[in-house]
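Researcher: Sequence recovery benchmark, item below. Answer with residues only.
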């Protein structure tokens, strides 16, 4: 008899990251990806209850949406489609970035210098979990 094992956060992280190109990622970026994916999945919340009847009527009366288009959009939001797209975009940006060590090597400077340049806003980087990553 086969028993179905419940999906764990680690399983969900693996599934989420399977859609992200990671072959060029060093170990620091790979670790940041796992941490951020784990955090995003833990923060996932059910969809917002939606907009009010007055807001719905305004959108339809204004001609911006048909009743069907608005219903489809609301269903998409409730399913979390937008949140999933945002998460995937963030993870792809991290995967396409360099770690502090990789940025230092590429620039021919020390890690301390990379940190100085970033602090002085002369080198763009963004937070990916507990680390700063630098777009390639």
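Model:
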């Amino acid at each position: 008899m086969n028993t179905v094992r419940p999906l764990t956060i680690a399983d969900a992280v693996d599934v989420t990251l399977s859609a992200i190109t990671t072959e060029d990622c060093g170990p620091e970026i790979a670790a940041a990806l796992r941490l951020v994916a784990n955090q995003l999945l833990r923060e996932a919340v059910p969809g917002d209850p939606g907009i009010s009847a007055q807001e719905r009527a305004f959108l339809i009366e204004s001609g911006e949406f048909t009743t069907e288009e608005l219903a489809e959009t609301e269903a998409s939001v409730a399913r979390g489609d937008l949140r999933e797209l945002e998460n995937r975009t963030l993870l792809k940006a991290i995967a396409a970035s360099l770690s502090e060590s990789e940025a230092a090597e590429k620039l021919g400077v020390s890690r301390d210098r990379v940190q100085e340049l970033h602090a002085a806003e002369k080198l763009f980087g963004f937070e990916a979990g507990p680390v700063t990553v630098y777009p390639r």
